[in-house]
Amino acid sequence: xxxxxWIVIRHGAVVLSxxxxxxxxxxxxxxxxGVSAVPGQTGFTPPKIEAPTSLGPGEGQVNLVNWAxxxxxxxxxxxxxxxxxxxxxxxxxxxxxxxxxSDEMVNLxxxxxxxxxxxxxxxxxxxxxxxTVAPVNTAxxxxxxxxxxxxxxxxxxxxxxxxxxxxxxxxxxxxxxxxDKVKPAPxxxxxxxxxxxxYAGKITAYDSPIYIADAAxxxxxxxxxxGIKNPYSLDEGQLQASVDLLKQQxxxxxxxWSDYTKEVQAFKSGDSVLGTTWQVIANVAxxxxxxxxxxLPKEGATGWSDTWxxxxxxxxxxxxxxxxxxxxxxxxxxxxxxxxxxxxxNAKSCELTADxxxxxxxxxxxxxxxxxxWYWTTPIAQCLDGRTDITCKxxxxxxxxxxxxxx
Amino acid sequence: MNTAAPARPAPLRxxxxxxxxxxxxxxxxxxxxxxxxxxxxxxxxxxxxLAALFVTAFWSTDTFTGDLVRVPTWGxxxxxxxxxxxxxxxxxSVGVAVAVTLIDLLIAFPMAFAMAKLASPRAQRWLVxxxxxxxxxxYLVKAYAWRVMLGSEGLLGWGYGLTATVLTLSYLWLPYxxxxxYAGLERLPDSLLEAAGDLGARGWRTFRTVVWPxxxxxxxxxxxxxxxxxxxxxITVKIVGGTSQLIGxxxxxxxxxxxxxxxxxxxxxxxxxxxxxxxxxxxxxxxLENL
Lengths: 407, 291
Description:
A: D-Maltodextrin-Binding Protein, domain 2, D-Maltodextrin-Binding Protein, domain 2, B: 2 domains
C-alpha cells in the first residue's frame, strides 16, 4: 500500500478510520444535535483526572498513535507534509505510530508509551472510561476557538461536561448514482433496498459488518414497528430484521466494495450505477469523468468523526498539547482534511484548502447536513440507546451476521 | 592462514583445525549441526505458528476491551460446525479450488508437453521464461487487470462473480501448474514414446498408457500448488467475486473487522485440515517426492 499512489493510501486511511469508528464507540449520537441523552456516556463515570492549567516548555518530542494519513511528514508524498513545519515551529520531534483498528489504538495507548491519539467513536469512550486519556484544557489550545460548534462537547469527545480532546474531522456515507443510468435521481435509501429495483445487479454496498447499521437506519425511518432508536444498538429482533433486509438486498447487489479504487472503477465502467459511497470517491469518479452524483438521503446516513486526545500518563504533555493545537490549526487541518477526504474541524480551514470548494463539497459548515449523520459507533452488548432491560448484539455478532448475509 | 611464520608440519593444534577434525570423525554431530538451523525454522516459525493458531482457536475475546480471554472453550468450533453458512462457504471454497486446479491442468498439460517434447532446447529456455513472466508482475495488478477485462465495458465483459473468480485464479496460478509438469515430462525419456509408437500405439493410447502414468506425480505436485493457493485466497474474490465470499474472507473479516482472533483461528483450521487430508491422499501416490 505504501508505494501506491496517495489516493490509495488515503482510501486505506478511510477504511481504517471506518473500522476504528466501527470498532469502538460506546456512544450513540442522536440525529438531532444537542439530543445528548447518550448511553455509553451515562454508562460510566470517568475517573477523576485533572487537566493541566498551564503549559511548560516543549519536551523535544511527542509520540502519537494515529490513523494512516493523519500524521504526514512528506515520506509518502513530498507535497503532503504538515509535520515538518510543526517540528520546526515547536522543536517537538514527532514519532508517529499508525494503528490499524480502534482496538489496536486502545491497546497501544494502554502501554503508556504514547502521548496523544486520534481516536474514533468508541475508542474514545473506552479510553476515557479506562482513565487512559485525560480531560483536555481547551483554553491551552488557541485554535480550539475556531472549531465548529457542532463538533464540540459531543458524546464521543467529552464526559461529565469536560472536553477530552479536540475534533479532527468528519465525513458521511452517501448515496451515489450514475446520472445517465439512474432516473429519476434517488433521494432515499429505498433505492438500494427495493427488491424490484430496475437496477438489480448494478447496485453496490459497503463490504463491512458496520453496513448493517445502514440497513438499521433505513428500518428506523421506514419501519417504526421494530422500534429502532439507534442503528448501532440492535437487540436480537432488530438485528434479525436488518439482516433479513440485507439478505434480500444481496439478490440485487452486483458487488460489495471495501476498496476505494474498486468502487471508482465500477462506477466509471457502469458495473455499478447505484450504491453507498464516500464523498472522496465521488470526487475521484467525477475527476475521471464518470457522470455521478451523491446525496444525503432523507433517512439520514452513517458517518465518522475523530478526536485527538492526550494520554493521562503522557511523558511529553507540552508537546502533545502543541500537536493538538497544530493539527486543528487552519492550515494543517485544511491539509489533513483534503488529503484524507473529509470535512475539516476548524472553520478557518475552509479558506485555506487547495481546492477552494473543499468545504462545500464535504459540507464542513453545514450542521443541518451533519445532524442527519449517525457517526460510526461500535455496537456493544450494553444497548447504546439507553435500554437496560435487554442486551444488544455486539460487533462480533454483527460480523457473523455479515458473513451469513453474504452467504 | 598465517603467512608470517614459515610453514609448520603441525597446524593441527589450532582450534579451527581441531573442530574440523572433530566434525569429520563424528558424522552425527556434523549432520545435526547442519540441520539445526532449518529444523529450528521449521519447528519454531512454521509448526510453532500453526500450533499457536490452533491453541488460539480455543480462546475467546472480551467484547468490550477486545482482550483475549485465555480460557479454553469449544465455542468457536461449535459455532463453526452448527452454522450452515460456514459449511456452505467451505464447500464453495473447495469447489473453487478444484475447478481452478482442473482448468489449470487442462491448459498446463499440453503446454508443458509442447515445451518439454516438441520445442528446441533454445525455444525451451525462452518458453520457461515466458511462463515465468507473469510472476514478475504484482498479484494485485494482475487481479485488477482481470477486473477491468471482465467489467461490462471490458474486453471480455462477462461480469463479476464466482466464475470470474475461478477464471482469475486459474490465470494467477497457471505457472505453478506448468512448471512441475514441464519438469516431470522433461525427465520422461523420448525413447519410451518412440517405443510406444513402434509397438503400434496411436497418440491417445501412448498418452493414456505411457505419458499420463509417468507424469501423474508431477501433475499432483502442481495440483498441490494450485489447490492450496486457491483455497487460501481472499483478495481475488474481493476484486472480481461480486457478492461471493470464500473461507479466506471469513478469516479476514473476523480479524480485520471484528478483532475476533480466536474465531478467525478456528475458521483458519478448516483449510489446514482440508490440505492435510489432500496431502495425505497425495502422499500415497509418491508425488511429494516430485515437489
